[in-house]
Structure formats: C-alpha cells, structure tokens
C-alpha cells in the first residue's frame, strides 16, 4: 500500500500544470527506442542463420548498435543546448525507422552492420534532448519525471521482445523487427506536433558549437563527477553485456524454448516499470548514494547465483534480483543533470554519456568471445564481481546536494 501511495503521489505531481501530455509523448518515444534495441538480442539467432554470424560477430553487432548509440550523444547534447528539442527528438525516431527498414532488408553482413550503425546513431540524438527538455519542465521533480520516462522504456523492453519472437516464429524474423517502423513514424509526428510550443521553456544561450564541450571541462574537476562517470561506465558495461546475450544464454545453456526465454527476458524489464519511478523518487528524497547502493546490491547476488540454477521458476526470481539495477539510471541521470550549469547542461550530459557508453560498448563483443570459448557461466560470475566493485565505489561517492 505504501509503495502504491508513493507512486500515485508522484504520478499526480508530474502530471499536473498541463505538463503530463508532453511527458507522455516523450516517454512513448523513449519506450519505442529502448524497446526496439532489446528486440535485437532475441533475433540474433535468426541473424546468425541468415548471415552466418558466430557469437563473437553477433556480439560485435550489438556493440556496434551501442557504440553508435553513444557517439552521437555529445553532438546531440550540443544541439539540445542551442536548438529546439522537439525537432531533435522527432528527427531521431524517424532516422531509426529508416534504419530498421535497412536492417531487415540487408543483403549482406556489411549492409547489416552499416544499417545497425545508423540505427544506433539515430537513437543517440534522443536521450539528451529528452533530459534537457524535462529539466526545464520539472525543476523540482526531475528524478520522478525521468524515472517515469525510463519506466516506459521498460514497458517497451518488456512487451516488444515477446511480440517480436511470436512474429519471427509465426511470420518471419523480419516482421519481428519491422512492426516497429510505423510506430516510430507515428511517434515522430506526435513529438513534432505536441511539443511544438516547447511548453514555454527558455533555451540556455550558447554557440551550439562542439567547442562548447571545452566549457564543460571545469565542471568535471570534482570528486562527485569523477565517481559518477566511473560508476556509469561500469554500469553500462554490465547492462549491455547482460542484455546482449541473456535470451541466447537461456536457450543454449539453460535449455529453455525461445518463447519462454523471451518472456523471461521481458520480465527483467517489467520490474523496471515499478523500480524506476521509485528510484527517481528516492533520489529526490534521500540522494544518490544510498539509493544506488540499495539498487545495485541485489544484482550482485543474482549474477553470482545464475550459473548454478536451472529451474525456470528460480530463474524468474534471479532475473528479478538482477532487474533492480534498472533503477540506476533514474538516480544517475538526474544527479548529472543537477550537477551541470544550465548553459552547458546538454553538452555536459552528452559528454559523460558519450564517454561512458562508448567505452562500455565493448562489453557485448567481449562477452561474446567468452561465450564462444565455452565460458558462458563464468561470464556472469565476472559480471557479479564488476557489480560488487560498483557498489564499493558508491560507498565513497559524494552524495548529491
């Protein structure tokens, strides 16, 4: 009852004053972007068959998606500091729609990789514009607003992979990804129309040049920023490595059917629908350090136990333990947004996310190499150790003001 009361109160607060429609359309766009990315892991077996990919090369494909989803966030942040966020976000989802059409029609592995790179690059323009827009819209409840938008991402990541699996099995694997294309087109139209007045928010003044990134450097020279950048890198490394191959692991190592594996994979994100709003509200009330520790301790146990469990119901419980890590973004992103001045907020967020996501994008290909050599189980023990390191770092992280 208490959890329901907290969630209900936060929903009422962020929906008021005419801001709810803007929040909803932004959240829907983000849910589509993140949900589509999680379709890639469930169609990897089909791509392996069609294009003759090994696990290592399949891991490289996932890494390409995440790499290009990160490199565009710095220029995306610079653009968000200068130009209209609604145009940036609408353009982002339209580019992704085009990229998905190229992925499902790719005649060769080279075209597949190029289309996947465009997919990532298109999606990279959305995140920072989303944060800067919401930071102007919600000056007191940014954590809650971001937590709710990130929860819709988990709705997409919960719902779309099973739908993709059903379509891939009953129709064709191309249908499992292609059904997202019209949804992105509709989202682009909705973003452009509904956010047209930008809700009266003022843009910070700036040159809009990549040279603005130099203005951010002094704001990185704090212990809090150093800790948060390190934590984000390790978190993204863990998250990308886990999500890239979990459905494949459940099918090939645990012996589950593709449909059960995709449902279990979806349940990982389903928990985030509740976890992320609660994590965002916790950040607003008790700060970053305690919130992050509570969020990241359960995955340590989940990763450590995963290699030793085969029962499907126990795997559901372990997946739930790991899923608490999904609340991390609802704490780290508002923490970073609150740490930068308004003039360089978008550039600062873009710089941090580009650095951390680019470095972490090597996780899936490294995990794919480990799996190819027959050490799938040992890979999850490594993830448990890395998550434990993040928890230790968090203990010494300066808390938010």
UniProtKB/TrEMBL annotation:
Q: Where are the transmembrane segments?
A: 21-47, 53-75, 87-104, 141-160, 172-195, 224-242, 262-279, 286-306, 312-331, 352-373, 379-397
* Keyword Glycosyltransferase applies: no
Instruction: Report the PANTHER family cross-referenced here.
Output: CHLORAMPHENICOL EFFLUX PUMP RV0191, PURINE EFFLUX PUMP PBUE
Q: Which PROSITE patterns match?
A: MFS (PS50850)
Residue ranges constituting the Major facilitator superfamily (MFS) profile domain according to the UniProt record: 22-401
Q: Which Gene Ontology molecular-function terms are recorded?
A: transmembrane transporter activity
Question: Under what name is this protein listed?
Answer: MFS transporter
| Species whose genome carries this gene | Natrarchaeobius halalkaliphilus
Superkingdom is Archaea
Question: Is Membrane tagged as a keyword?
Answer: yes
Q: Please provide, in alphabetical order, the Gene Ontology terms of the cellular component aspect for this entry.
A: plasma membrane
Q: Where in the cell is it found?
A: Cell membrane
Q: Which InterPro entries match?
A: MFS (IPR011701), MFS_dom (IPR020846), MFS_Efflux_Transporters (IPR050189), MFS_trans_sf (IPR036259)
> What SUPFAM superfamilies does this protein's entry cite?
MFS general substrate transporter
Q: Sorted alphabetically, which keywords does the UniProt record give?
A: Cell membrane, Membrane, Transmembrane, Transmembrane helix
């Amino acid at each position: 009852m208490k959890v329901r009361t907290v969630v209900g109160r936060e929903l009422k607060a962020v929906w008021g004053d005419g801001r709810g429609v803007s929040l909803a359309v932004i959240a829907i766009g983000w849910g589509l972007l993140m949900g589509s990315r999680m379709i890639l892991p469930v169609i990897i077996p089909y791509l392996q068959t069609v294009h003759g990919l090994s696990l290592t090369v399949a891991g490289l494909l996932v890494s390409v998606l995440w790499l290009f989803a990160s490199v565009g966030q710095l220029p995306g942040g610079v653009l968000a500091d200068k130009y209209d966020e609604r145009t940036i976000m609408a353009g982002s989802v339209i580019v992704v729609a085009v990229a998905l059409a190229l992925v499902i029609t790719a005649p060769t592995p080279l075209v597949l990789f190029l289309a996947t790179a465009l997919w990532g690059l298109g999606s990279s323009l959305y995140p920072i514009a989303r944060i800067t827009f919401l930071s102007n819209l919600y000056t007191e409840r940014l954590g809650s607003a971001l937590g709710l938008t990130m929860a819709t991402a988990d709705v997409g990541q919960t719902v779309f992979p099973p739908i993709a699996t059903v379509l891939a099995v009953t129709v064709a694997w191309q249908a499992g990804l292609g059904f997202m294309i019209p949804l992105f087109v509709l989202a682009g139209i909705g973003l452009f129309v509904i956010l047209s007045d930008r809700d009266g928010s003022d843009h910070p003044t700036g040159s809009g040049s990549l040279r603005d990134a130099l203005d951010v450097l002094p704001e990185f020279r704090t212990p809090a920023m150093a800790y948060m950048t390190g934590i984000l890198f390790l978190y993204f490394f863990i998250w990308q490595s886990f999500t890239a191959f979990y459905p494949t692991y459940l099918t090939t190592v645990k012996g589950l059917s593709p449909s059960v594996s995709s449902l279990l994979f979806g349940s990982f994100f389903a928990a985030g629908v509740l976890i992320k709003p609660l994590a965002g509200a916790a950040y607003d009330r008790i700060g970053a350090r305690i919130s992050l520790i509570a969020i990241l301790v359960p995955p340590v146990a989940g990763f450590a136990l995963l290699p030793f469990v085969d029962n499907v119901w126990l795997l559901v419980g372990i997946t739930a333990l790991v899923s608490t890590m999904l609340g991390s973004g609802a704490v780290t992103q508002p923490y970073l947004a609150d740490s930068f001045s308004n003039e360089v907020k978008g550039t600062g967020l873009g710089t941090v996310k580009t650095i951390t996501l680019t470095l972490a994008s090597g996780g899936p290909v490294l995990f794919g190499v480990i799996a190819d050599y027959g050490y799938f189980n040992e890979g999850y023990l490594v993830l448990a150790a890395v998550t434990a390191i993040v928890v230790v770092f968090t203990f010494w992280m300066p808390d938010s003001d």
